[in-house]
Amino acid sequence: MKPWEMFTYLKALKHSQFKTAGNDVQYLITVNNSERNIYVWFEESCGKIDWKNNLNFPVKIYKKQKSCLKAAKGWGDAWKSCKDQIAAEYLQVLMKHFEYDTVICGWSYGGAVAVLAAEDIYYRTGRKPHVRTWGAPKVLWGRKTQKYVRSCCASYAQFTHVNDCVPLLPPFPGYCRLSTDKVGKGFSIFKLFNPVVYHQIYGEKEVYPCS
To answer: How is 138-188 classified by DSSP, letter by letter?
Structure first.
């Protein structure tokens, strides 16, 4: 699927279609046999717990291995709370489709969780997933962490519209994504205050360069 097709699919999913794990993290694992892909989808913020995690910025050492993975505490704690359940289900699917690639997708809050999920899947299986996110905040902290998590991925693209305010969070030095793949044109400070439009525009093919 193209990026706008993935986002349209993710956005069209009903809340009831997702499973809930850990600290109220919503996810869904699907298999696309024609593409030979396993998809792991993460939903955007959908409750009070998610918003509490969204605003829990302090840096925390997420894993104390040699890589010293550092992440914003709220999203790090959210993933730690659900990772074993999701990994167990993913491994069951992987055993049936071992030759398939894995694509981890998330929008907004789900995009932050997706980045941590990619590292964890590689850590558990040695298989590098592809990562695709839309409007994701900056979950990682420090270039060392960024370099390490990038090394865990087969490919990554974190699409951020130039007028989407969510990818600007947390608004402090040191926080980062795997990448910032800008889409859209016509930046305006005033448009940043319209997330109803610009945080949900990723399903439009025209906003992507060379689409």
So the answer is: --EESHHHHHHHHHT-SEEEEEEETT-SGGG-S-STTEE-S--EEE-S---
Give the full edge-to-edge strand order of the sheet including 155-161: 19-21, 25-32, 37-42, 101-107, 130-134, 155-161, 181-183
Task: Tell me the pLDDT tens digit for each residue of 90-99.
Answer: 999 999 999 9
31 CB-side CA count, 13 A: 14
What is the reported pTM? 0.93
Residue 210: alpha-carbon gap to chain centroid: 23
- How far is Cα 163 from Cα 15, in angstroms, rounded to an integer? 26
CA end-to-end span of the chain: 13
Distance CA 178, CA 170 (A): 15
pLDDT digits (tens, 9 = 90+) for 98-108: 999 999 999 99
Rounded distance between C-alpha atoms, residue 175 and residue 168, angstroms? 10
Q: Distance between CA atoms of 141 and 174, rounded to whole angstroms?
A: 5
